[in-house]
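#onboarding

Welcome to the new folks! Below is a worked example of what a typical request in this channel looks like: someone posts a single protein sequence, and someone else replies with the predicted structure as tokens. Don't worry about understanding the tokens yet, we'll cover that in week two.

Example request:
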Amino acid sequence: MAATGGSTKEAKPTLGGTKFKTRKRDEKVKLDVTSFSEQLIAGLRESGGNLDEVRRFLDNAGGQLDYRRYGEPLLDILVAGGVLAPGGGKVEGTAISPVSVFQCEPKVEAIRGHLVVMTRVLQRYKYLKKGLEDEMKKILKFLKGFQDSERRSLAIYTGLLLSEVLVPASILTSLLSEVLVKEGMSLQFVTLVFQTWLSEKNIGHVGSALRKAQLEARLTDFLPASQQSALLFDEHFSGAGLEVLVKYRRAQESAEKRRALKKELEELLDADSSSEEIIDRCQQHMDTAQLTDVDVTVLVSGLQVNCVIGQQCVYVCVHAVCVCVCSCGDVLWTVWSGTRRMSSQQSKHLNILWTTHLCSCLSVLEEHRN
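Example response:
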């Protein structure tokens, strides 16, 4: 081959006219959402609005309509009545179903039938359960594109789904969108969700679901930014008849403050801090966190410290002073009960260390009493 410009590269051979055959399993059939929605909605129309007939139709049509490939439009139609476009509107050119959650009157009993239908569909076609979770996350982001009655029906339906554990509470994070929170839609929606949920299940069930979704400490985030305070949260939900949720939030807040105090005291004890500093820190937390006498006493009793002899003496003294500061007992009895937990070898050194720490603690205690 002749060289051009000093280059000796040879042209690579080509396979002109050769066709590569794609394996059948690798072929992707294009989705025909319009055709699917028309067939599905035609079957729903034939039910005449009878939810028992709807359930039977959906139960039998899964193989023919291929729910595995068309899971998203299926759930769009069952919830919103049509295939949803980005933003919440219906896709142009697709049919509208006469049977959907959005078509229902926003009342629990009216919507409960749709919960039964969805439960049956998920029992028969288990692969749709993850799809339902994704569907609810998506549809909650579109709240602004729905009418008020549709939002109310959707909120009740969401509460019922949560009560039956058909979806996790993590779907509620979609409501923390800045736009929805700012306009107050998130608060209005989640209030109705909690009202429905708590009418079906107790606060233990709700709290467990919120904890799994890591939402138990984020309840105030559903309020607009200018109103995100514990006081305004309590006022709003008490006014909505959800005092049990208010008590739950307060309990979570108190537990978080106790954990913070416990961690701080363990760090102070490990650092061999002075008794005065430890006691003052306890008092500060009691004032700011509104912890009760019993809260602090029990917390200090359960501290896990590196049991060096000097630190153990400090621990016993702090326990004693906390009990006395909290007016829950007698210092000498508490000190004696604490020293019983020490080994005989440790108690040999007690006389040397004890006097210093106890006198220091008692002097601080006297200041607190005065």
